Amino acid sequence: MNINIKIPEECSTLTDVRAEIDRIDRSIVNLMSERFEYVKEVVKYRVSGSKSEYDHTRYLNMLNERAQWANEAGLNGEAIKNVFKLMVDYFIEEQKLIANK
What is the 8-class DSSP label of residue 98? Predict the structure, then answer.
């Protein structure tokens, strides 16, 4: 673990900036992996063939909420919504594979 984290203004070289971006990206990947562990747990609570198998309304609400969070953080909400859509669609496909085992 890098305990010498530099805030953007403390970076003095492109190498410093890239190292911090890599550190953040690794954290994002680790958080996605942690999220996936919870996603896999969802399979235990789904009833095959029922509405609870896939709640499209919740999916759309979740994506819109992430877009709102992004907008509030000064990011492009639609772009971040697309990132979450890609991630969640991948996780849904993985859930299907787990459920069919």
Answer: H
* Residue pLDDT tens, the chain, 101 long: 557 899 999 999 999 999 999 999 999 999 999 999 999 998 888 765 554 567 899 999 999 999 999 999 999 999 999 999 999 999 999 988 888 87
C-alpha torsion sign, points 45, 50, 51, 55: positive
What's the CATH number of domain 9-99, 1.20.59.10, 1.10.10.10, 3.40.50.2300, 3.30.300.30?
1.20.59.10
Q: Give the start-to-end residue ranges of the domains of the chain.
A: 9-99
Selection from 78, 54, 55 nearest residue 66 by Cα: 78
Kindly report the pTM of this predicted structure. 0.84
